[in-house]
# Entry
Amino acid sequence: MTLRLPLALALMASAAVVATPLAAQTVAPPAAMVVDGAPAIPQDLVAGLAPYQQSRHANFLGWNAVDRSMLVKTRFGDTDQIHVVAAPGGARRQISFEKEPVPAAILSPKGDTLVIQKDKGGDEFYQLYALEAGRPRLLTDGKSRNWFGAWAPNGKLVGYASSRRNGADMDLYVVDPADPKSDRLVAEVKGGGWNIADFSADGSKALVLNRMSINSAMVYELDLATGKMKALTDSKTQVSYVDPQYAPDGSVWLTSNKGSDFLRLGKLDAKGGFAAITKEPRWDVSDYAIAPDGSFVVYAINEAGVSRVRVMDVATGAVRNVDGLPGGVIPYSFGSAIEISPWGQIGLSMSSAKVPGDAFSIDPKTLAVTQWTHSETGGLDPTKNVEPKFVEVASFDGEKVSGFLYQPDPAKFPGKRPLIVDIHGGPEGQTRPDFLGPNNYLLNELGVALFFPNVRGSSGFGSRFVNLDNGPFKREDSVKDIGAFLDTLEKDPALDASRFAVNGVSYGGYMCYASATHYSARLKGANCYVAISNFVTFLENTQSYRRDLRRVEYGDERDAKQRAQLMKISPLTSVDKITIPLLVATGGTDPRVPASEADQMIGAVRAKGGEAWHLLAKNDGHVFRKKENEDYYFWTSIMFWRKTLLGQ
# Structure
């Protein structure tokens, strides 16, 4: 009898669950997720969202010189891991098996050693490891922040930057991955923007980039034996230099805005002058790669957010457009987004509204495009996804600002539709028309329109534009841009101006809070993710290796005049103006925007009688990388939009 009673009770309990309607069942939060003030998530919502949360991407990471396979990053479990694809359309064979995401993996030039870069719980204190038979072997100190730089051509040396000396300055190191004891400091520096960019052919020297801001950088040549550095560029003028590389003939290639409002591809001369080689009058060169024999260069133009790939013959300067790729975006990469194999094939990834992110190769002779991966989209047909339309408006001062508007199918959702304005981070980031992932649920199932603005200060529109919001006295001009977008979008006959809301991540989270303080009367809700609520406390508490870089952008809280203005424009100072519900999500290990930024905003809003839902993922950082946290936040966001925009 005692043996049968638990079974009977279990059967009764099982029957009770089966009898309970799916809508009445709820999903427990992840173990490390703290839910405060947000409702429970119904199981039927989770079931309906599932296909939209199962899309994958495949980001190209490089070629293997040994077997001509391709290295990609994709997800089959809860986190992005490294996979090998042997041939176009081949299986994605997983080779890393970490609990944490692996955002970067770089093969040695000879293809015999793989170095990966990963952190713990989103803390961004990245370590370098040699991946051997699926197991990582630590190469760095295990405590500081480290960032991969480059492989030496012989595959025996890795250059990288590390904050281990004092937690703030990114000094320059080299290590032979086969011998961790070979790790040595080559040069001490001051600042958090330093790294080794490339090695000379004989491995005796390295190119070093010191990036002080998006529009200010210096290039040096480092003698690896002595640790002495020689400046290759002029320090007297503020110029941006990006991705310096040695060409096979020893010349130094890079992109720069010297003499232009946009980044152009060119070479440095012996006196530090920059000679542009690309001739496009507008738009940044976002990525490039030099053929191993130096015969051609492939580069991408960021044309108002869309990637245009071109191949240039170095000898003649002739340029050909690659037309066989999807019309979309080359995704951000921790390493080189474009790489040319030793046998001449060009590798890259592309993402668009209808392509979730896949790896492609290009034949440099014929420009024929071959798709290597075919990422799944949860069983949904991606060809039915909505394409955006480009929207440009004149802001309060006449400055032109733009964005991408996605509108639901009017046949399925007739009448005026609600709208979410979704603001990117950075602030030097840029909204580009890539795959929307789970956000397609808002368009396809709820009939909610989405608008992604590029306010002043966004990259991709020239150096002048990216500087328009710099410092505390220009900061709110970008918030006024949101007002200008609202003015235009409210007049769109397909949109319901009485049901607008705002969403934003990181700096976009600040913009989300700021929009709530300035435009509460025009909004129904604000979903602010890893967001800055007070610029002074943010600058005081962000990790020290980031602080000076952020002061260049936002202002210096140590200066009394700037501190007063930073306090004035901080959303926390004007919390009494927020009259709409908030959803706030943050990571407990976030090194950029500490969780305290959310805590103080939540407390202030509730003290004024306002409504605030709060999610804290204790095991995640700046933007959730663990799928369980990412999913739960999205479920909560849908609950929030259903309540605030749809009245459900």
About this structure: The two ends are 49 Å apart (CA to CA). Residues 627-644 form the longest helix (18 residues). Confidence is low (pLDDT under 50) at residues 1-19.
